[in-house]
Amino acid sequence: SLLMHGAKAPALGQLAGCGSLESIVIPPDATGVEALRSLPRLREITASDTLPQKRTSARKFWEEFDAAAAK
Fold it and tell me: pTM of the entire structure?
């Protein structure tokens, strides 16, 4: 798990090699989010400025991410 909430616009591209990462909390202004798609074990991705009460599945995160990008 990696908690990055509160970080100032982190570049997530550097995490592409973290194949064992299963859960991450990122701030909404993170860049390079697409790099997380390549992580085979990633099952939870939560975008939040504060420690979230409820985690988001990777499937749901990508559904919402893709829908927002299509607008």
Answer: 0.82
